[in-house]
Design goal:
about 140 residues, alpha+beta, 5-stranded mixed sheet
Amino acid sequence: MSRKIIVASPAANKAKPVNGFTGSTWGELKQHPVLRELLQGNVEAVLNPGNVTLTRDDAELPEGDFKIFLIPTKNKAGMTDAEARKLGQEISEAIVKAASLASSDDVTELGNLLKNEIEEFFGVELGDDGCEECADVLAEAKGYL
């Protein structure tokens, strides 16, 4: 029986549906391409509903629809929120100033280049993959950080 499963990784800023999964254990689900893509680094898999941590490959999954949150167990040192906001503000001001001197096509091209560079640099996906519920599930998963 196929069911609706959404996996969210707040660290990667991605949430994706798992389509066509008919298995019954965590070990089987980990072999799915979506999970292999998102299971990067030290993460803990939290099954929702129930907030159960999946640690053993033979752990039974629910029969109905569910979500899995991949929560980092070890955070990398990084910028503080204030530092990130300051950097974002400086970049925004530079873009606004330069955009006032450039053509509309140049600004559009720069926007696309910056988005692609940010996705590649941070290893995140900023676009929409057609999963209507994925944004909500990702926001819910971020509550575990």
